[in-house]
Amino acid sequence: MTLSQPHNRSHTLLVLLVLIWGASWPVTKIGVTAVTPIWFACLRYVVATVCLVIVVGLRGELGLPSRSDLKLVAVSGILQMASYSALTAVALTRLPPGRSSILAYSTPLWVVPLSAWRLREKMFWHGYLGVGAGLMGILIIASPGLRQTTADYLMPYALLMLAAAGWAISIVFVRGHRFQASALALAPWQMIMAAMLLMPFAIAVEGAVPVMNRRGLASLAYVAPVATAFAYWAVVEVGRHVRAMTISVALQAVPCVGLIISAIAFHEPVTAPLVFGVTLISVGVLLTAARTPLKWPFGKRSWDRRHLSTCR
Hints:
Shape: globular
Number of helices: 15
Number of domains: 1
Number of strands: 0
Order of helices and strands: HHHHHHHHHHHHHHH
Distance between the termini: 59 Å
Radius of gyration: 21 Å
Structural class: mainly alpha
Largest sheet: none
């Protein structure tokens, strides 16, 4: 195998990952209309746990996490998996999947300021501009709910923002964590944590496990093993050969894929405000993701003038 083959395979996996996660939003929409949303999120992680235990066991990496890694398992299992899946699943019962995916994937907008505060990472001027543009895009997309005065209209948008913020907190924690085991070896424990948290909550709120019809089973058959277990392995594998910056920018195509599929499958209207909001969020993510300072317009000319004045 040549050096370029793992690199090419990783880029193929990255494209596949974008398509899988993009399609998961309309498929999850089908699932939460056939099964109660919190139970759907719980069952998703139960099935994904079984799949990953088999995979990690066959690789000989299955073992109890260390005390240090238990903190990571708890934070990511609670915020990135349990909370995120439950909140987005409940929001999907009220909102179309395309609009939901865009708001839920606004996570990078929250990661940058959190990283600057918690990890002391430097935040450049375009980072502030990107956060502002992204927030403006979110407000435009959520404007139908903001125009309403009742909590029923505002609630799903608030749930999606909470989901994105929780995922952002988890990402920042992971950045500062020193792994004792591989990310793939910890994945089953994170999903067990998510399932254990969601199950009693689902019983308390939604009652006993619902009987799933064919639509619910078909949705779960895709979301759990493919969009959860396989996708988690894929993103870890891609991370071994592709820069994190490339991955973070590429994954912003996920809500765009979700929006296109939702427009076709659910006839979700693609309005001008929605397109404008998506554009602002995309620009905001690109500005916040830049890790080197961008030059101001006419920066070189201004530098030349300062340099000449210094030489004089």
